[in-house]
Amino acid sequence: MLRSWRVKLKLLLATVTLAVLLSWLYLFMGSLEYGRFLLLPPCLGEQPSRDMEREALASRVRRVEEENQQLRLQLGQVEGSDGSPQWGTSAEDGDPPRGEGSNRTACPKQRMVHKCELLHVAIVCAGHNASRDVVTLVKSILFHRKNPLHFHFITDSVAHQILQTLFQSWMVPSVHVSFYNADDLKASACPLFPEVSWIPNKHYSGIYGLMKLTLTKALPSNLSKVIVLDTDITFATDIAELWAVFGKFSDKQVIGLVENQSDWYLGNLWKNHKPWPALGRGFNTGVILLLLDRLRRLGWEQMWRLTAERELMSMLSTSLADQDIFNAVIKQNPALVYRLPCFWNVQLSDHTRSEQCYTEVSDLKVIHWNSPKKLRVKNKHVEFFRNLYLTFLEYDGNLLRRELFGCASLPSPPSNQLQQALEELDEDDPCYDFRRQHLTQHRVHLFFLQYEFLALPNPTDVTLVAQLSMDRLQMLEAICKHWAGPISLALYMSDAEAQQFLRYAQASEVLSARRNVAYHIVYKEGQFYPINLLRNVALANTQTPYVFLTDIDFLPMYGLYDYLRNSIQQLELPQRKAALIVPAFETLHYRLTFPKSKAELLSMLDMGSLYTFRYHVWPKGHAPTDYAKWRTATVPYRVAWQPDFEPYVVVRRDCPKYDQRFVGFGWNKVSHIMELDAQEYELLVLPNAFMIHMPHAPSFDISKFRLSAGYRGCLQTLRDEFHQDLSRRYGAAALKYLTAERSL
Length: 744
Prior knowledge:
This protein has 25 helices and 25 strands. Strand 14, helix 15 and strand 15 (487-493) form a beta-alpha-beta unit. By secondary structure, it is α/β, with parallel strands linked by helices. The strands form five sheets. Strands 13-16-15-14-17-23-19-24-22 form a nine-stranded mixed beta sheet. A seven-stranded mixed beta sheet has the order 5-4-3-6-9-8-10. Its cofactor is Mn(2+).
């Protein structure tokens, strides 16, 4: 409290001082118009130089204004984020030295950013890797932001699916997201729409590295300005500070850029090095401020296109994608550019002048990993930069779901429905934790690693579907060796664990060689393992007509993928509703010579090195498979549903979803098989298929089930509620399940 009053007193004194100085200056000048001019942000380049006393007085006014601003900032820090309703450009955002391209051509009024003003950010993103990079960028922005944000993503179809699902499941308050299909922008049918596909580009970003040139047309016509960012950017400050720089543009300036910090455009990197034309060192386009309305009035599309056509006659292709064309345009029209201070784009590539952008690393605002080496770049402060990046890379994104207090925000309908459902929960309910977990909205990052989508799946093709957590990673390589077909996996991990998994997968020769394994990250939240949510995520993102629903701790027999496809065709499954059962076995040995045939498996079964699955702890789960009949069966045979039956099956992709009320251990598969039976699926056991469960330590959830009577009681409550829902959906036919349960 004492510190707060001290700051307030200082602020009051500074305000009085400023008022006195301004009054004195007004009387001294004798001109109301000129006095009012001095109330705008100072612009000494335009002041009369003949009156030194007048200039000294104006300088004193500026210093008091700056001190005033710093005191307001201190006061805001004392009182909290709500103590200061506005954000403006920091004192460090001063104009650069005079010279070529100077910003002192005019002195616009510096505009403050209201804390509830909506800020617009545009990002071009294509593919799986860029989608991961975008998440880290967005985290760094959300961590510092105090304003509502609207992200505009120009994407390919892959990034669109990934990011749309991510933001829908993330549900960050006061964040809006729009998507624009880059495939449409590459070659529009509209003759007025600029195309970029005709431009040869040597840069690794490919065609998408040219998309920023199209933003005046790609983005909504009523959007007047936008911050444009590369995906390899990390923010170390509130993006509102950068947005405030728009207020410093002159009437002619339309593009804000930081000077390029390498010698690329100087043309002296090697013999016969011939870069595109640029103004001095040129500009880097990793961070751009665009005044879209002015660019449209200038005829931006025609301007950059004519420039590109002319330069390509001699250059033949771009080397740095859109950056070359932006620089060629600015070379011809230097008045268009506003030079941003270089701490708004500290470029961490080898042999740059990035270290001249800051005195202390704490002065940084935006870090740009624009070298192909990324985190391995050479810089004496690279450890600091790397740690900052890794902080956001592994930061728990759930913590960024914070409200912006004081700003009116209209939550989306899903958010409203979720909030209403949460408010309706009874906290005194013994099963409150189970019900709360069921309603938890988990962030989902689909296709976390590179995945090759099938152009036209075979009508009998089948995908292995499973879920896992960090403690089951060791099973992935073995499963990939046993199953050659497509795989869809949902992984339950924290942000930090997801990065550990990424490093593990990239270092594995087996996993890195596969392009038909889809990894979908479901981020941790809550105290129970959301097993059926995970299964549904993996199931929903398959492409093949059929799915093999299994668990990660089972190894399928060698050749099972081909056997299942043949069985689907021979049994004419497309014309019937059936679930093919793959008999399950288990071993208690961590080292196992895996049987290569049914005959070998039967021999191991007789010798006691293999067992039918869970025969000693839960025989009801798989007894209906009828293992005795399977031993001699040569053709598929039908079995009837029985209580607690939970086989592993092959079904059509459009099968019923798993019931997500069942979390943790118990009844998660039983309920699914019950619903398949309610929908009159035939249950057919395959005579020459098998899978073997590998031993592992008990899960945390099964331990809770065994030790907690309350846990078991809540599971019974959820079972009763499931029966009631089943009866409502399927009528009298579902009564047999409740009757069968009660008869046990």
